[in-house]
Amino acid sequence: LDDPAGNSFIESIGTSDTRLSKTLYERTREQLQEMGYNVPQANDTHTAATAAPPPPKHGADLPDHLRAANWDFSKSIEDNIDKRREEEESGNIGRDEALFFEVDCHHCGTKGRQDMCAIDIPGFRECLVMAFNCPHCGVRNNEVKAAGAIGDKARRWTLRVTDPEDLNRDVLKSDSAAVRIPEIDFEMQQGTQGSAFTTVEGLIGKIADHLQESNPFTGDSSAQNELSAFTQTIDDLRKLCSDPSCLPFTLVLDDAADHSFIGRRHPERPQEDDPGLTSEAYDRTEAQNDELGLLQMKTEGYEHEQPP
């Protein structure tokens, strides 16, 4: 097996398998090009950055607050300037419109477009919807992230799903949240799957799809007992949403950063009227703080430290 991407695998027998060897090597220029990376020519190292002239300009470089798209021509200039200043001071820029900026593509390394928009989830907090698109290699990605700082404590959401209406509850699962369903002995650790804003049914379906598509050990070379147990777990997840006889079951979201959320069945009613949903804040363990990088983070007195 010769895989330029490094995504192939052959199972070893025991800790020391003398008949199996693995060699790491630098990719050739042809391999990089076949994988879609933007590789400059060998003799263009110096000219690649200087040969391309800047695009011609049409008119003066106007700041954003003076562009026509940001002005209301039914009002005076003074009113437009005052409105823009109020938006800047209140931090409301970007909440009524999508912002975009250029970032490096994680696949080919060229510049791609990252769109970002702020939304408010009722009963929770402000979140960021982010979508990336690379015009060179076609890579696309979208993600929902909770805005704001890491919570003072971790939070555990517990939902008792008793009828199909509970499957339609809104769920925001961050990448720092662990998911547990005790009835089928299922647990997914934090960081296994990215953020998602969906419903209970959509979250369980995404987890099942992710396990089926991303796990490489479900082929004909897998041990039969391991393959059967894995496929049974996926089937059990799908049955939770399609088979009424699987009700009730319990869904637990345990987020060390307090960036996850399960919506109430009736958002306009108080929490006491929704006994199937509970939320518990608790102190993070040292291991959780370490995983979030809080033990190495210093927010006071860092300006006085001498560099190593």
Automatic annotation (TrEMBL):
InterPro entries: Znf_ZPR1, ZPR1, ZPR1_A/B_dom, ZPR1_jr_dom, ZPR1_Znf1/2. It comes from the Eukaryota. One of its GO terms (molecular function) is zinc ion binding. Residues 262-308 are annotated as: Disordered. GO terms for cellular component: nucleus. Residues 103-264 form the Zinc finger ZPR1-type domain. Gene3D superfamilies: ZPR1, A/B domain, ZPR1, zinc finger domain. Keywords: Metal-binding, Zinc, Zinc-finger. Pfam families: jr-ZPR1 (PF22794), Zn_ribbon_ZPR1 (PF03367). This is Zinc finger ZPR1-type domain-containing protein. It comes from Vitrella brassicaformis. Belongs to the ZPR1 family. The lineage of its organism: Eukaryota, Sar, Alveolata, Colpodellida, Vitrellaceae.
